[in-house]
Specification:
The protein has 491 residues and is an alpha+beta fold. The chain has three domains: 101 residues, no CATH class; 115 residues, no CATH class; 168 residues, no CATH class. It is 44% helix and 12% strand. Helix 9 packs antiparallel against helix 13.
Length: 491
Amino acid sequence: MKNMDGSPKTSMPELMAVLRSSSDFIQFGSKGVSTKYWISYFRTLVDTKMLHESVLAVLSKVNWTSLEELKNAVPVENIILTSDTDVVKEKLLQGFIMISLSEYGQSALLIRVFMEKARQVSLPEVEFSVVGPKEAFVESLESNIHLIRKRMPSDQLRIREINIGKLTHTKVAVIYMESIANDENVRTVWQRLNGIEIDHISDSSVLTEIMSDNQNSPFPQLLDSERPDRVVSILSEGKIVIVVDGSPQVLIGPSTLIEFFTAFDDYFFNYIVASFFRIVRLASVAFSILVTPVYVATLNFHYELIPRDLLNTLVSSREEIPLPPILEAIFLELTIELLREAGARLPTKVGQTIGIVGGIVIGTASVEAGLTSNVLLIIVALAALASFTTPVYKMSNTIRLIRFPFLLFAEFYGLLGIVFCFCVLATHLLKLSSLGRPFLEPIYPPRTADMKDALIRLPFSMMSKRPIQLRTKQPIRFDKKRASQKKDIDE
């Protein structure tokens, strides 16, 4: 017998010899009511309580003479009867036990007795909100699918699973609404997952890079989320969700740039308040990227644009500073980045202390030592604070990165360099796509209908259509005329 690739199949004695080389592999023979059997399993993968109560109890009490009879007698859901050694090896490594009538029997009964160990559903840590549900995904695929199914009890919800990784065989689930999602989007996701050649998948972030349309772009092209409520809302729009076993973050696509600056809290507040916060968020991102480069460009090339009173303040603050503005700005920017990294890598309580105390001590000391001006210190601190308003952490990292090219071009070419950097950035974003769909939609291509939930959020009664770019099977969410009717019970 040979495998599909032409290599010879492993025999049962050879397979057992390989597996027995691991100290956690158990194999022993025993006598049931009327039949002798052999049982094999990895003790580190098997739930021993379920093994004794659901399997061994049946083996010792029920009269059976064949594996087919035993398959009907064991009260366990997932049972496979096979003679394929490749299937036997795969299932044993997934928490199945193998029962055979002899030590090296060709036919084997595989029973799933997997020991599920995962943390309990807890509060969101990255996308925490004051208002709204407080559940977050965990590292268990089954638990995450349960959280989605619980909120979307629809027979149109489709789940397709695939194993990725030659060594880890990580289970990945693709979830979408059959009656809404565009078939082309589903095929695109499925083809890209099937085309992945890698030895292991440790987290959904690995798939983010592998499946991206442009892997050389610093911008994430698939949105990640740890909130089941957000995922269910996006499924109802017609998007595709990718869940990876062992990862508490699920991937969502196709995504747009605007979605990375949209907090799900926006849908829990009045649309006027939500729109205000969204505009503040977008303005903060622009401020974070541009304020320090504009400071450097103005002092080097365009000081005539500064009002006289403000110019006097800037001159007095830099009177004894030995460093040019660019070195002063880079020093403070790198200091902020060091504090961020130190706070992220250290334990939570120590990290918070390092961030607060380190920022105060280093900032005060650098000003008193005459290395930096107090005006630039305030500007850099405000820019760092503004970057924290980005709801998605991966996009926040991208914003932190692209500030430095703007800063360098501002040093060499002034405001012209900033404009040049902006044009390069805009060109890159215009060419970018997510699963083949425009990344800048609805800004470009301009789609007025999708603007209702982009830069601002309009009332729910005006969102009767799903996003145009998704090309969904059901573009209409609800009847807009019926939704606008507000009849009281006495009318």
